[in-house]
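Researcher: Let's do a round of design. I'm pasting the structure tokens now; please hold your answer until I've finished.
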């Protein structure tokens, strides 16, 4: 397990695509370093790389992820950056997720019990409450990635809360807050945050271009719209607590 002692108290991004060559995130090492530099400048002391783990699009393997993480962190140190790089995966709801769950070998956030899961965006399977229950029964705890992007929850946040309360944490994404996916998703994301329903907020950053376009503007907006203590909880206290439980 990684040492997290040095990051205690800093901002932690628990969801981004910074490992080159594993998914649709950072294109190469230089892009990855630029992302890390930008996030460090924005006050982050640790990021947890969460490459897509779905059924078809990307090659997935915990060993590959760990090797890429270690290589990137070493390059970051050579470049004089102090930001730490942790490892995880962003599972799509599907066959691979079920297989890894059944085998009790889901790749968790920094070796904790927390596992990042994205739900289908256009429909909500009737079995979803049972699936989240099974994840818990297997000893994991789900973090639902950007549920604001799921159509069934638009204008019906109670449905999301009924699904997740006691079973999963809610993580809102900077990209949704910036309006990347349109007005409805943006509105839902801010409603989750300002209504006090979100447990976490994460960049889901895919490219250095998103630093000036998304990360910095959303941070500024978060600072102006949320009480400082709430923002500290979302970006620092809660993620520190989750990975400290590793
Ligand atoms: Fe993501």
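Researcher: That's everything. Go ahead.
Model: Designed sequence:
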């Amino acid at each position: 397990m990684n040492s997290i002692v040095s990051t205690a108290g800093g901002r932690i991004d628990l969801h981004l695509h910074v490992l080159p060559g594993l998914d649709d995130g950072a294109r190469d090492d230089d892009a990855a370093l630029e992302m890390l530099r930008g996030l460090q400048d924005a006050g982050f002391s640790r990021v947890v790389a969460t490459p897509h783990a779905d059924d078809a699009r990307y090659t997935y393997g915990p060993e590959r992820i760990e090797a890429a993480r270690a290589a990137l962190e070493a390059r970051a140190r050579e470049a004089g950056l102090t930001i730490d790089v942790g490892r995880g995966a962003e599972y799509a709801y599907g066959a691979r997720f079920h297989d890894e769950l059944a085998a009790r070998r889901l790749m968790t956030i920094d070796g904790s019990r927390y596992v990042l899961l994205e739900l289908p965006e256009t429909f909500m399977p009737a079995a979803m409450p049972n699936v989240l229950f099974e994840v818990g029964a297997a000893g994991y705890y789900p973090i639902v990635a950007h549920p604001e992007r799921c159509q069934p929850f638009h204008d019906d946040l109670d449905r999301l809360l009924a699904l997740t309360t006691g079973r999963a944490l809610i993580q809102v994404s900077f990209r949704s807050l910036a309006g990347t996916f349109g007005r409805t998703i943006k509105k839902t994301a801010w409603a989750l945050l300002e209504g006090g329903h979100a447990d976490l907020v994460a960049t889901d950053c895919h490219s250095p271009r998103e630093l000036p376009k998304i990360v910095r503007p959303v941070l500024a907006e978060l600072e102006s719209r949320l009480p400082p203590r709430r923002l500290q909880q979302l970006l620092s206290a809660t993620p520190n607590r989750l990975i400290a439980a590793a």
